[in-house]
Design a protein that fits this description.
The structure is a single chain. With 277 residues, the chain is an all-alpha fold. It has one domain. It has a two-stranded antiparallel ribbon with strand order 1-2.
């Protein structure tokens, strides 16, 4: 028991609180740039094996870090009495927009090349990239004093951003209307699952005074997302839910259009190079 307690204390090792655009944040931004450069150079050698290597590296490491985070926030160890106390933090349950890439990556790692897998990958390419990008540029509320929690946060979002861009850059997800529509379809399925969890867990009576707000759409708790919290308090709940889905779908549409433009520019340049040769 004592050795397990010591291990837990090591996992809970703290650092000076990381800040937005401080050295810790900038280090991860640099890792994003380096990763994308490496993957861009490899895009000409794209293969199923390469895709699974990218998905597996991100997904498995993210899952291990997520489990570690749950343990850190659930258990406390008293070295004097050599006892553990447990208090699960329901607000940190791992089913948010930014944690779904963990499950999508690992699931797709073992799936064959089917329409469902392509739809799941499209969801990562066009939808989850929104949350990843926003957290990468504005990480203020996500950075704490526990080292492993910060590592988890940055790997989760920075890694997801890299995978999303890789899927578009490599051609694993073609930038077309059908893939975009399928991505929105998967997003709506996840919204429904999140709402089932919100209603089920809240009415189970196990929360006590804690918050449980998956995808920040619970009818029982106000969203903690900027802007959305104000909207939720200003309009009837069904209107808020509809606006939430529409807003994120529009965000995904913007990602789709930007990717389409960039792809068109790159293709034109490559065509000119071929003609010159």
């Amino acid at each position: 028991m004592e050795k397990i307690g010591e291990l837990l204390c090591i996992l809970q090792t703290e650092m000076p609180e990381a800040t937005a655009w401080g050295w810790f944040h900038l280090m991860w931004v640099a890792l994003i740039v380096i990763s994308l450069i490496v993957l861009y150079k490899l895009k000409g050698k794209y293969s199923e094996k390469q895709l699974k290597a990218v998905l597996g590296t991100y997904g498995i490491v993210a899952l291990i870090l997520e489990v570690t985070k749950q343990l850190i926030w659930t258990f406390d160890y008293n070295s004097v009495t050599n006892t553990f106390t447990a208090d699960y933090q329901w607000y940190a349950f791992p089913f948010q927009l930014c944690t779904t890439p963990i499950f999508v990556s690992i699931l797709c790692l073992f799936m064959k090349r089917t329409k469902l897998r392509l739809s799941l990958l499209s969801y990562m390419a066009f939808v989850t990239i929104l949350g990843s990008f926003m957290t990468v540029i504005i990480p203020d509320d996500c950075l704490v004093e526990t080292i492993l929690i910060n590592v988890h946060t940055m790997w989760l979002h920075c890694g997801s951003l890299v995978v999303s861009i890789y899927l578009l850059m490599s051609g694993a997800v073609e930038i077309n209307k059908q893939n975009f529509k399928n991505a929105i379809g998967i997003f709506i399925v996840f919204v429904i699952l999140a709402q089932i969890l919100n209603v089920g867990v809240y009415n189970s009576g196990i929360l006590g005074d804690e918050t449980f707000n998956m995808f920040y759409i619970s009818p029982y708790f106000i969203s903690s997302l900027p802007v959305f919290d104000t909207i939720q308090q200003a309009v009837p709940y069904p209107v808020y839910l509809a606006l939430y889905v529409i807003a994120l779908s529009l965000g995904a549409c913007i990602v789709y259009m930007i990717a389409k433009v960039i792809s068109s520019i790159i293709n034109k340049k490559e065509k000119v190079k071929i003609e010159v040769k």
